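Researcher: I'm comparing several assemblies side by side, and this is the next one on my list. It has 1616 residues spread over two chains. Same procedure as the others: predict the full complex and return the structure.
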Amino acid sequence: MSDTAQANASITAFGPARATVAGAPLSPEQLRQTHAFWRACNYLALGMIYLQDNPLLREPLKPEQIKNRLLGHWGASPALSFAYTHLNRAIRQYDLDAIFLAGPGHGAPGVLGPVYLEGSYSEIYPDKSLDEEGLLAFFKQFSFPGGIGSHCTPETPGSIHEGGELGYVLSHACGAAFDNPGLIVAAVVGDGEAETGPLATSWHINKYLNPARDGAVLPILNLNGYKINNPTLLARIGHAELEKLFEGYGWRPYFVEGSDPDTMHQAMAATLDRCVEDIRAIRATARAGGPVQRPRWPMIVLRSPKGWTAPGEIDGHKVEGFWRAHQVPIADVKKNPAHLKLLEDWMRSYQPEELFDADGAPVPELRAYAPTGNRRMGINPHANGGLLRKALRMPDFRDYAQAVERPGRIEAENTRPLGVFLRDIMQANMRNFRVFGPDENTSNKLNAVYETARKFWIAEYFPEDADGTEMDPEGRVMEMLSEHTLEGMLEGYLLTGRHGFFSTYEAFVHVIDSMFNQHAKWLSICNHLSWRAGIASLNLLITSTVWRQDHNGFTHQDPGFLDVVVNKSAQVTRIYLPPDVNCLLSVTDHCLRSENYVNVIVCDKQNHLQYLDMERAIVHCTKGIGLWDWASNDQGVEPDVVIASAGDIPTKEALAAVAMLRAEFPDLKLRFVNVVDLFKLQPDTEHPHGLSDRDFDSLFTVDKPIIFNFHGYPWLIHRLAYRRTNHKNLHVRGYKEKGNINTPLELAINNQIDRFSLAIDVIDRVPRLHVAGAHAKEKFKNRQLACRHYAYAHGTDLPEVADWRWEG
Amino acid sequence: MSDTAQANASITAFGPARATVAGAPLSPEQLRQTHAFWRACNYLALGMIYLQDNPLLREPLKPEQIKNRLLGHWGASPALSFAYTHLNRAIRQYDLDAIFLAGPGHGAPGVLGPVYLEGSYSEIYPDKSLDEEGLLAFFKQFSFPGGIGSHCTPETPGSIHEGGELGYVLSHACGAAFDNPGLIVAAVVGDGEAETGPLATSWHINKYLNPARDGAVLPILNLNGYKINNPTLLARIGHAELEKLFEGYGWRPYFVEGSDPDTMHQAMAATLDRCVEDIRAIRATARAGGPVQRPRWPMIVLRSPKGWTAPGEIDGHKVEGFWRAHQVPIADVKKNPAHLKLLEDWMRSYQPEELFDADGAPVPELRAYAPTGNRRMGINPHANGGLLRKALRMPDFRDYAQAVERPGRIEAENTRPLGVFLRDIMQANMRNFRVFGPDENTSNKLNAVYETARKFWIAEYFPEDADGTEMDPEGRVMEMLSEHTLEGMLEGYLLTGRHGFFSTYEAFVHVIDSMFNQHAKWLSICNHLSWRAGIASLNLLITSTVWRQDHNGFTHQDPGFLDVVVNKSAQVTRIYLPPDVNCLLSVTDHCLRSENYVNVIVCDKQNHLQYLDMERAIVHCTKGIGLWDWASNDQGVEPDVVIASAGDIPTKEALAAVAMLRAEFPDLKLRFVNVVDLFKLQPDTEHPHGLSDRDFDSLFTVDKPIIFNFHGYPWLIHRLAYRRTNHKNLHVRGYKEKGNINTPLELAINNQIDRFSLAIDVIDRVPRLHVAGAHAKEKFKNRQLACRHYAYAHGTDLPEVADWRWEG
């Protein structure tokens, strides 16, 4: 053991060393270099947390050189940089194409250090140069106002995974590995995050990787033992249980356990060599041409002390290897001279004078330890996926048009032609496009896509699978009953420069509210980073919507995801509610060509009236909002009332209301407005898609009643439009949590989005109908009641109402 | 094998039978009875799905006797009723106190059948009586408008778990078992839902149950092999992997695999006997007085065909044991006579004539097979927890008051006294109160609670744990880094009649958006069921809030959970934003005494100014909204402007703005309004807490500018208040996604909730200040800039601003 290692070992104390793979592959020189690189990483991590001056400790440390506000987390950092260090050696040794995902929260110091040492950081941020001045700037910016955060935020070179919210590192890694046959995605999993649900189920990603076609994910579970104040579950179960758990999940776990640096370096090197060999063997087997089988991919369990190499004890409290090492291990160094000395000794134990030259640059040996060029994990283009992104080859969406001769006469399943469109997009992009959905692509009528790419399946097959299960180890449609895992895979796929499409049930898209929030935040930050190349938008089709969940019941009725979406930055959020097949095709074409957005498309899968032929649909969707003249009769005059709609079912009911009103009141002047692009309702000062007040006023008038029939919760429309001139006359109908087991019409009636309620709304709000409309109002009420009675008697809707067609 | 069993066995074909536990404990007579009960369940399930007449098949089945709209799901039902049937025998044999949770989606037919047979259903719904007329009503209502759903909705006797959204059955079961030492909670887990993240991590509940003090959860994983159109992951991995997985999770798995009913009955009976014996042995050991250790609880893996006992094949397609059995296996029976015949044969294969007597009542043998009285799982009071609920013994919250001599002069951590209050509540309710939080109760300053009840921990201990880890196998504070699992445990605990308190980080409460939605929906439905006794409210403290996440960065800044909450029924949702310690105590006291709500309390954990002494706090919180006269100077006159706030930091900044404005413009008449109960802003027609328009107008005026400083996204206030007279003058500031690494004040400035922005808002909106205020406006802007510069230079806020006190 080198003196340095001994020096550090003296302040580490951790359980018995244990490693599954025997051997000491590092020569003494390699061991010294490896440890030097890691020492440098640890020094940098401490520098980031503590120093605002004297970055190389060229003079004794003084209180004023300590940052005023100590932020950041030491706990996870040493093990992260330990893994990064060893990957550097393996990359050089085997010429690996690898990227690094840091799952543990607040792990940035453990990643930024090696990224700086390898030179990636300075290439992207030249003011953080490889010299004393640059080093100081690098230290100061960390967790500092106007600087960078303590997670692996978008500002971190080489990062596609922030880790700010826990649980997604393996699904992100898996998405990154798809269709990247040469790539190894090293994914460090924290034992804290391993307790989250999304992480727990994402160990199953090994059932979603095809070793012939996809890259490898190499999970490195870091059992450092502690969260903020608690031990972690996985660190406190026996070795046998832990091993069984991961074997049960289908992995081949290799254990690297201990605290003595030299022993651990040898064990980690031997294990990493074994993992690379395993991956190569798996690839060779899978790529030899035989049938592809599910391999047992290697993974590493790295059990190392939390805050590894920190002082073992401070003021009588255990620090290294305990939760007290989680954040800033010595907090009061500015005021406590003894603690300042302790910190200085600790930092000097890494021997910075050996690691940095006279200019403050890392010594050549350290630079040489890292890979070069794009092999450096901080600069690998896969982690700045926009650089590698190729535009999708898109067939002409017009070719999939639904023939619509006259509006509102025929019905079609809105999503079915989209499935055909997706099939052909898939066909033209068989290496950089995938479709995602939790067991629902058939249910969602998108199954035509299986004609070119089936569901991915690499576990066991049964004979009956031949009958319609549509599974294939070459499949490109990813289905798992975990919205979390699919969303994570898709994000990883997009962040590494590819394209995708995700469809899911409306009520249960709330399961990934938080993931949407985090991805939107990531995109917002990327908009300010010129070096981050644009990535494909995240396209989310929300189908099986609330208005067709009358039979699945109350739990399946929740259109509130849109309320979550509108809270995020207008720069990255788009919401579309295409009312029919052609609008859905037009909108989807637009979304698949866009970049850096989250596009949310709401469109039900069942039979719906068709309104617009393709030409009209394109015009309508391009404008995003428009007056439907064929449903309006206000030509040349101000209308008495504006009837507006957004969404398929609300549009149908609104049109039916128009028809009823026109039959009753032929001289009533009605204007019909349909909204596809929901953000049109916001002022243009709030959202780039927003209408100007002038355009809004000209569509919605400045003083006439507006009856707005909305797909979602009605208050959302008020929230978007509250600043508009005519807001006081805006009356919105939408879902109000009034559902159980109903017929479709009864569900509409309960929430007052049905034709009768709307027609009555108009009578109530147009002054000249208050008296003249009394009779009609009574009639509408009776018809509504009759519909309800029919539903209760027959279990279905009155056919003449359910099958209503626009006759205008 | 009986003839009947043989008849059914002929249409089942499934892999080799296998059972971990050998033996055939059922006598021939018991076997016959067991099978008869299960046959009756299966018959009832089909009747629910198909029949609207001829419920006992007393005549040949005719098309008009088939429901017009076939809804419901057969696939999961037979295995659910199989488990229920066997539990019935075990309950009788061992006099067990057990409840039944059905995890698989759309499993209601498999539960409603046995609940009807045991008589529970008819006791609760007398019109669904145990005769032909009642049976028909029971069939007709299923998945029928005005009837009941296909999940185990609140209408289902004995259910505390709907299963409408998947993934929570084990965490619900665990919560039900807490502090119920005699209870066994049987929890059937679907292999579809087993793919979800929340379910995957919830297998770790065995590390949260104390066998001496808590009941047992008996998971029954039903591997029926399929989801809607896909195989399931866990059904397609080898036996060894599966066994390791569950052993790795810490269970003792017993396998029951096959399809032949008689063999399976014997295997299931033997296995269930073993499980009961295991549970008894675990209890005996744990309750003998020695140290409590984590046992290996038993679980059952029940591998049975999907849609078990359905026809093996229909029209050349495999049905039983395949995904085609998922929903309605034969859909066109009304129009296809051959299929009608097939259905009739299938239903008759259960031999209904043996199962129901002349009146249509289940034969006495079936009634005798079920347990009696409260031992019936459909009527067990634990599953109607309000019946067992005891009011919390509450110390007087006034005793925990923060002394506040004058408003806004001192700072205190808002949550710390709450921790002391919770400590004493815990002390007085050591068997029916628990505190939940994902590793954050110390971080959230609630750690006083550990003085009476520490964190629950039953895994391994290390010597260093003695130093501040606060763990104990007798602990009553539940901590796991899974918001899903904790929320599920808490829901299960409340639904079985106990009380709890959950605190979590604001940004990551979005992780459980969907669980909140579902629990709110459950409560809404319960409000319409007179037989469901009221349960304690779900009390959720959101702390570590957006305005103190300046250092954790953008990912940790998301106050949008409230936008999700307001979409749910006004009958069950409450939101409070107490601005200081005493208000937080008063609000929490109220919430803990309430029932049938979700109470969301937003209050940060860090040091904040204190405004109200306890007496004033009580008055203020009871009103929910109020004018703070000490901060207003509009006594006797109309104000020039109303400044309003909701939330701790927004209140401080708003008050600082008032102070600045009063110093500049002594004759400006300001009114200060603080909102604690957010729903006060909605009209009383929309929410029971809503202010009348008259009261609202008198607080906010009908025409003066209102500057509202809000904790969350600003649009939420518009959404609540858009109908108010003075809405056009309502100007709201809140979080607008403008954050990164900042100081607290800089974060406020970026989002314009800071004192300077607010003061400028007032100048801009009060006409007589447009000119007179120009100089002050310039001054405020410069001060704001100076604050920002200071932050960038020092990494902290300008002390005189950060440490500002109210001097009024």
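Model: For your comparison table: The radius of gyration of chain B is 30 Å.
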